[in-house]
Please model this.
Amino acid sequence: MKVLAAEMIAAAARRDQFPPCEHPEIAFLGRSNVGKSSLLNRLAGRRKLARTSGTPGKTRLVHWYAVHRPDDDICFVDLPGYGYAKVSQAERRSWRGLVESYLEGRDALRAAVLLQDIRRDPSDDETLLIDWLRERGIRVILAVTKSDKLKPMRRAARAKEIRGAVDLPAADVVVTSAEKSWGIDELWQAIDAPGDEVSDV
Ligand code: GTP
Ligand code: MG
Model:
């Protein structure tokens, strides 16, 4: 996928700071440190678009990035990560409020890319989130991240286990590595696919 240019357009801590919808939006969400910002950078082909960090919980705001392509523009929305242990109850509630208010009320939202570390099993956090999103008619793409951390045999076995643990079409589960740039074209294809109509489920 050719990306002509990409830039951050907004950051928000509250709903009233959300920018107007200018392009179709793809949201990135998942556990803190799972690799959301890194994968988004890889897709955009811009190393330093979204800030990445070895310190979990770095991205606390919702960030919007416009990605300009030859035929259209799209917006990547980097949502703050969940499940970081050193976070207070109050912060958890505020995360939930912020993320839910984005996901529930955004007309421009086309799909959510949920990220899952290849070395972990999807937990209730992920399976409940998948159900929650699909109940609201939001298409879910599962990006399995950091696949470079495993040897090929183990990688294939883990990918199969993760596919078996989630109720998603095969093309919507993509094994990736932001580090090695694996699975990036497949992820773009999943993002651009029209997807099954889930609104009447
Ligand atoms: P928060 O914003 O804190 O929720 O984290 P995030 O999900 O945006 O993760 P981020 O992209 O900042 O990456 C977290 C750490 O994982 C960084 O140290 C990255 O270098 C590393 N990382 C991300 N993707 C990969 C990958 O594909 N392979 C490897 N080996 N490391 C990765
Ligand atoms: Mg991040």
Remarks:
- The two ends are 32 Å apart (CA to CA).
- Residues 89-104 form the longest helix (16 residues).
- Residues 32-38, 52-54, 56-59, 81, 145-146, 148-149, 177-179 surround guanosine-5'-triphosphate (ligand 1) (CB under 6 Å).
